[in-house]
UniProtKB/TrEMBL annotation:
Superkingdom of this protein's organism: Eukaryota
Entry keyword Calcium: yes
Chain intervals with Basic and acidic residues compositional bias: 29-39, 204-220
GO molecular function, one term: calcium ion binding
A Pfam entry, by short name: EF-hand_7
Protein name: EF-hand domain family, member D2
Metal-binding recorded as keyword: yes
Keywords carried by this UniProt record: Calcium, Metal-binding, Repeat
Domain called EF-hand: residue spans: 85-120, 121-156
Region (Disordered): 1-47, 204-233
Alphabetical list of InterPro entries matching this protein: EF-hand-dom_pair, EF_hand_dom, EFHD1/2
């Protein structure tokens, strides 16, 4: 097997380095009078040795396989200053102008959005709008970056004459509610945090109750229809 062959090569190389065994010179075409070994052969042996050593570490549990980090974005936990309804409204607005359905709003889609909202922007103005919240520097807006616009608007961090301020103002989404950051003292912040948590749980319960009510009404309609259907048989 390939692993056994690699192990054999590494073992032989270690014996040669320790002086337990003499290296054997192999004459090939174009090699006379003890010509030096090609650098590429030495590099290949070194690379094979490093790979085999790494494999041994992994097998013994010393090393760890590297995995790409996957961070899941949850708008409800990261943007606690907004209610679930506010975030859903922002998501609806975002998806409305995400014409490419790639979960991003690019410059042309932002241009269309601002025109529809009645606040058209120049090309430079649109680029500056994206730049202000473009954390990953990909020249387009993700949903998280889109939410940052409303966070900045709620915190009063946007210039009144800026394109982002116009977007937040004309979107008809009320973001006047300040979050925990707006509390003046530590104790006010703690109380506000508790209230935010309770409000979040209450909104979830309300959504569950509405779904339950809708399911019950649908069940009753089906039962009534079956009863009416059986009456005509």
């Amino acid at each position: 097997m390939a692993t056994d062959e690699l192990s054999s090569k590494l073992s032989r190389r270690l014996q040669i380095e320790e002086g337990a065994e003499e290296p054997v010179a192999v004459d090939g075409p174009g090699h006379h009078n003890g010509s030096e070994e090609k650098p590429s052969t030495a590099n290949a042996d070194s690379e094979l040795g490093a790979k085999l050593f790494r494999r041994g570490e992994l097998n013994e549990g010393i090393g760890e396989h590297s995995q790409p980090s996957m961070k899941i974005f949850n708008p409800y936990t990261e943007f606690k200053e907004f209610s679930r309804k506010q975030i859903k409204d922002m998501e609806t607005l975002f998806k409305t102008y995400d014409a490419g359905k790639d979960n991003y709003i690019d410059l042309m889609e932002l241009k269309l959005m601002m025109e529809k909202l009645g606040a058209p922007q120049t090309h430079i103005g649109l680029k500056n709008m994206i730049k202000e919240v473009d954390e990953d520097l990909d020249n387009k807006l993700s949903f998280r970056e889109f939410l940052l616009i409303f966070r900045k608007a709620a915190a009063g961090e946007l210039a009144e004459d800026s394109g982002l301020c116009a977007l937040a103002r004309l979107s008809e989404i009320d973001v006047s509610t300040e979050g925990v950051k707006g509390a003046k003292t530590f104790f006010e912040a703690k109380v506000k945090a508790i209230n935010e948590s309770n409000r979040f749980e209450a909104e979830i319960r309300q959504e569950q109750e509405e779904k339950k009510k809708q399911a019950e009404e649908q069940k009753q309609r089906r039962a009534a229809f079956k009863e009416l259907q059986s009456a005509f048989k």
